[in-house]
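chain below, 331 aa
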Amino acid sequence: MQLGMIGLGRMGANMVRRLMRDGHQCFVFDLNPDNVRQIEAEGAIAARSIEDLVNKMEKPRAIWIMVPAGAATEQTVDTLSIFMSGGDTIIDGGNSHFKDDVRRAKSLSEKGIHYIDVGTSGGIWGAERGYCLMIGGEKEVFEHLNPVFKTLSPGRGEIERTHGRESNPESLSVTAEDGYLYCGPSGSGHFVKMVHNGIEYGLMQAYAEGFDIMRNAISTELPEEHRFDLNLADIAEVWRRGSVVGSWLLDLTAMALLENPSLSKYSGFVQDSGEGRWTIQAAIEEAVPADVLAASLFTRFRSRQEHTYAEKVLSAMRHKFGGHVERPAGG
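prediction:
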């Protein structure tokens, strides 16, 4: 299947590689010509501009946007809408606010252009592991693009099937077990991804605080008989094996602690990418208590003023799963 990709950063380029490996024909554009040349050398068809990208593709076209949420995405959607035709599809795979998706889908529909919002999780590891995809938009368009979603998703792999799913085949999505899901109308994909990222904040904060407590178990403020000099890398490793708190985030934490036990490479300055704030805003609008998620967001705000070991654990996890580079110590 043909697919256009605008944005060849950490995730966009790897998504193109995964698609090409499975036989899809990819047309690419990025504001950085070096990024375009690199992926062109691997087999993609390069474009000099967005207009050139659109003109090179066969109708009906499907073009995936993988650029930062906000002004960059808005400008890209507006430019595409000038050159695309009725029946074409714009796919936003970034982290747009779901309300922006609803607005864009309505505006584009007046021109006959379809709009699909895809919450994409997988970070810099997605080329090999695959991407978890949460998809919103018209059901028929989702079904048309199914070959693309199937290629990008991780597939069932070796994950044990959830007990009971086989007894409810009609009420449950078949694709969810493959790592991609049609969530509903426009905006629903990014809404689910927004909450996903809010939960991610809470999970990361829980790990970070736990490791901070264990690191300080050697504190001289404690009675000598209550002090423990713990090997955090080994603890992270043993928790990976059979523990109820095992997860991919813990896997990445174990890697970081093995490489740099003191986490001296990390400042503890922790950014937030927006989705955590939006999750709390949604909770307020729905009058849903979200104590843990709100606290984890506020901790990130505080991290920019003072740096604890817990915040360095957060920095390490963000770097490991997404390649996010925090402000260095002293910077």
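The first strand starts at residue 2 and ends at 6. The mean pLDDT is 94.
thats it, cya
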